[in-house]
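Quiz preparation item.
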């Protein structure tokens, strides 16, 4: 089979390419450059250049074809502009999820097909499973990776059946130490290279500096909300799922000014660093933002009630089922395991399909439910669906 591997310059995609070649596939390495601007980056001027050099070294070592493609225009339009738009609205997007849906398994996939690819492989720690229904139609499941410390299925939570039909995840059954060992045994240049961090294809950034490419700094006030504020009283007892999904409606009258900031859109729920306010017994955390009046609301302590909620809502048009055959109908309720951020342990919850959207009611209150992030729900290892948190 002719397989194009997205060689990123990291150890995971390198070992994926090696394993595919060992299995007898015709393997082609394709490196994509998705970002040119270094504004706000913390890793030097040309992190992508090092990535490309390592990808080429691996291709040479494995004796496979190597190609390069520049997808920076599509990446800016589909991922970065979306990021700017969401932050401007006071929401916190997840660019890695968007990158997989819009770039790796869309634009990049089309480039791979131009090279005659039958499948596209990546170095993600997740698995893919096929099954056939009673009518003979093939379906695809997206399963968590075997390594619980590296499972990356969450980042692929928006993939479709068509995208999964082309996908291969060669290292999904391996543990990270095994991947490192294989790379060292095969003397791959990436064997000891550190894993990438930060925004997909951009790297580690100073977020306010990065966002100031489009979002201007604007001084505003920081207001502290005390834990006994009546704003949190309605959340102290279980009510109906709709009221529990409502975010706390904080105003400057609910607290007192304790400092200033340079733009409410630079902050996110649960954030601790970057406030510049000290002298407290416990750390201050962001519990709310108002981008219209440019106010950041904070609370002291990790157990502040403003950090925790029991429910959230996803708009009807934002609900995504990896396999539409399993979608829920209005009025239906199901129990699933849910996570609202990468690496968060799966949480027990009930999903309720309502005319106003999909509500997720957690068994236990969740810390830092954040609009713009993705909630993903699982049936065991099977990632069933996901959606953008509306509130």
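Solution:
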């Amino acid at each position: 089979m002719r397989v194009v591997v997205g060689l990123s310059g990291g150890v995971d995609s390198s070992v994926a390419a090696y394993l595919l070649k060992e299995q007898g596939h015709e393997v082609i390495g394709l490196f994509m450059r998705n970002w040119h601007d270094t504004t706000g980056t913390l890793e030097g001027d040309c992190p992508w250049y090092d990535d490309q050099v390592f990808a080429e070294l691996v291709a040479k070592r494995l004796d496979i074809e190597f190609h390069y493609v520049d997808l920076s225009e599509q990446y800016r339009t589909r991922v970065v502009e979306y990021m700017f738009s969401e932050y401007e609205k006071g929401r916190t997007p997840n660019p890695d999820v968007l990158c997989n849906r819009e770039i790796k398994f869309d634009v990049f996939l089309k480039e791979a097909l131009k090279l005659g690819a039958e499948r596209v492989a990546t170095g993600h720690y997740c698995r893919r499973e096929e099954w056939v229904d009673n009518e003979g139609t093939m379906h695809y499941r997206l399963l968590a990776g075997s390594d619980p410390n590296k499972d990356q299925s969450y980042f692929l939570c928006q993939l479709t059946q068509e995208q999964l039909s082309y996908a291969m995840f060669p290292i999904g059954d391996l543990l990270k130490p095994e991947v490192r060992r294989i790379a060292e045994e095969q003397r791959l240049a990436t064997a000891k290279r550190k894993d990438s961090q930060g925004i997909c294809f951009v790297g580690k950034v100073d977020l306010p500096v990065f966002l100031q490419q489009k979002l201007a700094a604007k001084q505003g006030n920081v207001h502290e909300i005390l834990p006994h504020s009546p704003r949190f009283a309605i959340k102290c007892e279980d009510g109906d799922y709709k009221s529990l999904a409502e975010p706390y409606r904080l105003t400057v009258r609910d607290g007192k000014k304790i400092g200033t900031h340079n733009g409410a859109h630079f902050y996110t729920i649960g954030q601790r660093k970057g406030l510049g306010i000290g002298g407290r017994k416990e750390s201050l955390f962001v519990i709310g933002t108002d981008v219209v009046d440019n106010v950041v609301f904070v609370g002291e302590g990790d157990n502040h009630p403003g950090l925790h909620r029991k429910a959230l809502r996803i708009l009807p048009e934002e609900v995504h089922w990896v396999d539409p055959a399993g979608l829920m109908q209005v009025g239906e309720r199901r129990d699933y395991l849910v996570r609202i951020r990468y690496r968060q342990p799966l949480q027990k919850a009930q999903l309720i399909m309502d005319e106003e959207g999909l509500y997720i009611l957690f068994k236990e209150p969740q810390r830092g439910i954040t609009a713009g992030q993705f909630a993903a729900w699982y049936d065991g290892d099977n990632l069933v669906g996901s959606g953008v948190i509306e509130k």
